[in-house]
Amino acid sequence: MSISVINQLVRQCFNAYENKDRAAIESVLAPDFTFSSPVDDNIGREAYFERCWPNSEHIGKFELEPVLVEGDKAVVRYVGTAVDGSRFRNVEVFTIAGGKVRHVEVFFGADTAESVDGEEIRSVVAAWAEAVARKDVDGVLAHFTKDPVNFFMAPPLVADDPLGENLRDWFATFEGPLGHSVQQLRVSGGGSCAWAHGLIHLTGRKVEGEETDLWYRLTLGLVKEEAAWRIAHAHESVPFLMDGSERAATGLKPGGGEG
Predict the structure, then answer these.
(1) Where would I find the SnoaL-like domain in this sequence (predicted)?
(2) Per residue in 59-97, pLDDT tens?
(3) Contact (CB, 8 A) for 218 and 197
(4) Alpha carbon distance 178, 181 (integer Å)
(5) Can you give the three-state secondary structure of the chain, one letter per residue?
(6) How many CA atoms are closer than 13 Å to the CA of 103, on its beta-carbon side?
(7) Which residue, 79, 96, 102, is CA-closest to 8?
(8) Within the chain, what is the greatest distance between any pair of CA atoms?
(9) Phi, psi of 27 (to 5 degrees)
(10) Residue that terminates a domain, selected from 89, 111, 133
(11) Do residue 13 and residue 32 come from a single domain?
(12) 166 or 225, which is more confident?
């Protein structure tokens, strides 16, 4: 295969990330494609799209240095710019076979395994929050383990209904889509277990016509299963007023304000 064709395949992969074009990168990856990095042990094509592709949402652009080609391998060094303006430098080695990319191995620059895990967890939490906003039961379940533990604000103390049933019943109490955003998210841990916590801003119209505008606390426990992060524990809460009324403080807003 000519050097120009290999260059084109490599650049198409990076362009796909810039354009968030999954179809474009699928067209150049071999059916038996594998991927390796300091935090990925030769994962397959399906795991790659589940674990790595969601990071395309954070990518702004790539500045590629000249691609070095020798035989069936191409080495590329680049500087990436994230949508938030932060920059990073990596080296990737592509193995080409039969006109397709068969293997990619990434060598991180300043990134560490912990920082990569953190970005992946943020992507999972963002995708989960968006699925809730769409009232997409299957989309939410895709980000949970098969048997999660859930401490929701609604009784009982531990949610004992299957998560899918619980979600369908809750979504049915609202008209149309929800406002459901995560604010002040913090992530810690990595490897095989991690925690994330932040604030949820929930808005929407109940079927009875009542408007909901609520801030509450969220803590998520996540585990890595089959090279993908999933939520194993979800805990929602609001403070209680300490005035003897035993009322929940549902009017609090970030910064100490009250609605």
Answers:
(1) 10-103, 121-240
(2) 999 999 989 999 999 999 999 998 888 888 899 999 999
(3) yes
(4) 9
(5) CCHHHHHHHHHHHHHHHHHCCHHHHHCCEEEEEEEEECCEEEEEHHHHHHHCHHHHHHEEEEEECCCEEECCEEEEEEEEEECCCCEEEEEEEEEEECCEEEEEEEEECCCCHHHHHHHHHHHHHHHHHHHHHHCCHHHHHCCEEEEEEEECCCCCCCCCCCHHHHHHHHHCCEEEEEEEEEEEEEEEEECCEEEEEEEEEEEEEECCCCEEEEEEEEEEEEEEECCEEEEEEEEEECCECCCCCCCECCCECHHHCEC
(6) 11
(7) 96
(8) 78
(9) -70, -20
(10) 111
(11) yes
(12) 166
Is 0.70 topped by the overall pTM? no
Alpha-carbon gap, residue 30 to 187, rounded angstroms: 34
Joined tokens for residue 9: 């395949």
Query: Can you tell me the distance from the alpha carbon of 204 to that of 210, in angstroms, rounded to the nearest whole number?
Result: 9
The Cβ of residue 68 has, within 10 Å, a number of other Cβ atoms equal to 12
Give the residue numbers spanning the domain of 91. Answer: 3-111
CA distances from 221 to 93, 125, 132, 189, 230 (A): 34, 11, 18, 10, 9
Q: How far is CA 108 from the centre of its chain?
A: 19
Select the more confidently predicted residue: 152 or 111.
Answer: 152
What would the two tokens of residue 173 be? 């109490």
Q: Which CATH number belongs to the domain containing residue 82 in this structure?
A: 3.10.450.50
Tally of domains in the chain: 2
Cis peptide leading into 148, omega within 30 of 0? no
Residue-wise pLDDT for 112-143, tens only, equals 566 677 888 998 999 999 999 999 999 999 99
| CA–CA separation, 25 and 47 (whole Å) | 15
